[in-house]
Design goal:
This protein has 213 residues and is an alpha/beta fold. It is globular and about 45 Å long.
């Protein structure tokens, strides 16, 4: 059995500026850095973390490195843990996306599991790559407690899979908050959920995605 502690990155500049980041390398804000430290402190007090993996994008990498530094562990980054590649949406304001990509962004909002970013990646492809790298990480770390610092859509896609939902039902799975902890267990080739989007340790420093994303 492998325990996976999935951490969404702390608040990023793109979050504050309300733009769709995707693979854009948007750094953490000062609040995001503080959130990452609070999450690291909580993990240090509650879990015997053995490994830390991250997306290679700086907002997730910095979040994961904050955890790794506290535990005295190296950071192992994987491109497969990135957020969705959003193609033409990347760098666009959430307020302008419905105007510029009316049909495709409407699918994102109403039926995200079947969404495809214009010039980019489908949610189905994202789910496949995320599940693939997580299975690999778990196979490399039997009986270990592993932190994975990543992004909102990968965690949502994993939760959808664990709940036995098809992609058409992913719309019913909510976004997790910044620097929140979601705990999963991988055993005998199966992922199961302990809990999702725990952020009580952040107190009044919680932050979430805007409603129109």
């Amino acid at each position: 059995m492998t325990k996976l502690l999935m951490i969404r990155h702390g608040q990023s500049v793109a979050n504050v500026e309300r733009i769709f980041a995707g693979h854009l390398d948007s750094p953490l804000t000062q609040l995001g850095q503080r959130q990452a430290q609070l999450t690291a402190n909580y993990l240090y007090s509650h879990y015997p973390v053995d490994r830390v993996y991250t997306s290679d994008l700086s907002r997730a990498y910095t979040t994961g490195k904050t955890v790794a530094d506290l535990f005295g562990l190296p950071v192992i980054s994987h491109i497969e843990l990135r957020e969705i590649f959003a193609g033409l949406w990347e760098g666009e304001s959430y307020d302008l996306l419905p105007e510029r990509f009316a049909h495709s962004y409407a699918v994102w909002m109403k039926d995200i599991g079947n969404a495809v970013c214009d010039g980019g990646e489908s949610v189905a492809a994202l789910q496949s790559r995320v599940l693939g790298i997580l299975r690999r990480i778990c196979h490399e770390n039997p009986d270990k407690c592993v932190v994975v610092a990543t992004h909102a859509t990968p965690i949502r896609a994993l939760q959808c899979h664990c709940e036995g939902k098809c992609l058409a039902q992913m719309k019913d799975v909510p976004w997790v908050s910044n620097a929140s902890i979601s705990s999963f267990v991988y055993e005998n080739g199966v992922f199961n959920i302990d809990f999702v989007s725990y952020d009580t340790h952040l107190g009044q420093l919680t932050s979430v995605l805007p409603e129109n994303c």
